[in-house]
Amino acid sequence: MMRTPSGRTRQTILDWLKDPAVHFPAVRCHGDPAETGVTARAVAAKLGVSRRTAAAHLDFLSRLGLLQARRIRYRTHYRRDEIRIAEVARMFEKGW
Questions:
Q1: Which of 1, 72, 89, 94 is the most buried (most CB within 10 A)?
Q2: pLDDT tens digit at each of 96 positions of the chain
């Protein structure tokens, strides 16, 4: 999954979300991105793609359980699910 061009994009998103405060500016009305998460619009701006494309990547990662999605007002904010990511990493280390 991570060897495709889309997989590399998703890996990049996961890397950015390790430390979102470094990669995404804080939005005054939503607070710290490390605490509240990052919107598809912010990811789209950083990737240079449409919001729909970024949302598709984020939704895919959420369905895999690698991201947690939380609705704040009219937008969905995404954060890494570190516990699930560690579980997946252990599965790959064991040889699946």
A1: 72
A2: 555 667 889 999 999 999 988 888 766 555 666 677 899 999 999 999 999 999 999 999 999 899 999 998 888 999 999 999 888 888 878 776
